């Protein structure tokens, strides 16, 4: 069953979207429908984390990881220069 939907979108975006839809031989409505289906499928397909992964999440602090990356980059620069 199709239902009418009213959206408020910047006119320049609408013009570009209509041109894109025409170039791909479909209606703007079908283009939006396809996009929204894709968004919903991505949401549904996200994998759940196992308890072990959830427990380990956050063990590495981002600052420590950045420092490690910087040190490794310095090592590579020295090695290959």
Task: For this entry, give a set of tags.
single chain; elongated; 81 residues; mainly alpha; 0% strand
Can you walk through the features of this model?
With 81 residues, the protein is mainly α. The radius of gyration is 23 Å and the shape is elongated. The longest helix is centred in the middle third of the chain and has 18 residues, at 28-45. The protein has a domain at 11-45. The chain has helices at residues 11-23, 28-45, 51-56, 62-79.
Note the total helix count: 4
Q: Structural class from helices and strands?
A: mainly alpha
Categorize the overall geometry.
elongated
Q: What kind of sheet is the major sheet?
A: none
Task: Tell me the layout of helices and strands.
Elements: H1 11-23, H2 28-45, H3 51-56, H4 62-79
